[in-house]
Amino acid sequence: MKIEIIPCLNDNYSYIIIDEKNKKTCVVDPSESKPIINFLKKKNLKLNNFLITSDNYDTVGGKTK
Fold first, then answer.
1. Its pTM surpasses 0.90
2. Contact partners, residue 41, CB within 8 Å, separation at least 6
3. More confident residue, 10 or 2
4. Which three-class secondary structure string do you get for the chain?
């Protein structure tokens, strides 16, 4: 497993958990979609799951964009 920290918004982070063996990914608290999508494209990964830890906009805004 590998965890990547993705800066989002002006003062927040999302996390991508990567199972390197199976190339499965999970995004934790996607507050913004563009940085997540850019990272996944750059690494040639496909998003498999979301993990949302609260219902605040700064943790879930990216899942609807």
1. no
2. none
3. 2
4. CEEEEEEECCCEEEEEEEECCCCEEEEECCCCHHHHHHHHHHCCCCCCEEECCCCCHHHHHHHHC
